[in-house]
Design brief:
Strand order of the largest sheet: 5-4-6-7-9-8-10-11
CATH superfamily of the largest domain: Thiamin diphosphate (ThDP)-binding fold, Pyr/PP domains
Mean pLDDT: 86
Number of helices: 21
Radius of gyration: 26 Å
Distance between the termini: 73 Å
Structural class: alpha/beta
CATH topology of the largest domain: Rossmann fold
CATH class of the largest domain: Alpha Beta
Shape: globular
Number of domains: 3
Strand content: 5-15%
Amino acid sequence: MKITTVHAVYFSATGNTEKAVKRVAEAIARAIGVPLEVFDFTFPESRESVQKYGPEDLVVIGTPVYAGRVPNKMLPYIQTGLQGEKTPMEENVGVQKYFDYAVALDDKADVVEKFKENTVKGSQFKQPLLEFSGACAGCGETPYAKLLTQLFGDRMYIANATGCTSIWGNSSPSTPYTLNKAGKGPAWCNSLFEDSAEFGYGMELACQTIRQRLKGQIEGLVENGCNDDVKAAAKEYLDTYDCGKMNAVASAKLLKAVEASSCDGEAKQMILQYKDYLNKKSQWAFGGDGWAYDIGFGGLDHVIASGDDVNIMVFDTEVYSNTGGQSSKSTPTGAIAQFAAGGKATKKKDLASIAMSYGYVYVAQIAMGADFNQTVKALTEAEAYHGPSVIIAYAPCINHGIKKGMSKAMTEEELAVKSGYWHLFRYNPAAKAEGKPMFTLDSKAPTEDYKEFLNGEVRYNSLVRQNPARAEELFAKSEEEAKARFEYLNKLVGLYGNE
């Protein structure tokens, strides 16, 4: 394959400038000695041209990441193509068959059963129903979403706030969410930035309404079913009505029994018509801290106050990641961000305590890199809880400027917990009925240096360089707030202990 033309594609409708992308494309075209063509993808005629691109065309898309500089890692690949030699893709095409074989393998049901899917080891034998996302390399958000799809993906509804999670989650015309071999996977939809919780709540209420109608019909089958198989399947369905995993199995049995039966009447017709709504769904609302702490907080509060079974997943990057790194109410004291250029002077909003104050909301704070077991336990407990839940997940972001690099995002999560910057806990109102403590503090007292952790990230360290005195003041304040937070959480252990 030999590259014959470089095409610079930009989007004036979204603010990409011709100048920025053209500068990059011109440098590449000049380096390999081929012509350059420039297109504004906003206009239909340009889209028609783009559709005709073949393997000999190199397309440079306008993005802030590459604006004003040549992506050096791309040049060896381009030069190889220019010389007519095999490209890395062509050299490795022979191993594609091994990947295809692995993908074609069935899930190891016996292995999952042995290790249990609600454990760290067992969950990783389940097929992820999120793959090949468009997130930044090392993104702290996607590992949580991937794990959720392994745990609940085949019966999962996702209402997604606009933000990073919606961008890597569904950049049209592709989506990383996928299906298993049974054709089931997460049902995903995005509405707006501010209304993810209400949007998901609407999904939950719609499903509740349809299932309640079906339940009334199925109750009649227990007494008046046309054969014993239908009666037994109807009874099993009703017995597992509120248990997501078990009800999925019972729903499949009921559908099979009804289809095979000679039964006739309204019950059979309704079951067949609404078969996709038979089993209990796992309803989730996804969003970042800009949504949950700020612009969508009113809706989030409304939904958890309802008492209905909606799970809310907050991917907490402590900054407006998708819109350019602005400060949110989740941004901690001392961090630099847009609108907090001199370091944020006020502390992080305590979303978890607000949610816990209701007394009937499951609340957890997690960090996968710090404790895999606690992460899986919190997610499975939240999903099994019959009521609203809020999971706040620490998610390292490229905006943090982690000095170790984003490849160490999981390590950064571990250090955040060990230094006392982030705490792990679970508040489970259902535990009281079982005679167990409602509040569990899963992280221990800090063992690492707090300020050393702060200095490992540019969002904090840049303040040291530009205003050392203010950095010292705010970092000391931040550390005191973290210590007070840990003391407060320890008091909750006693407050919500066994009575």
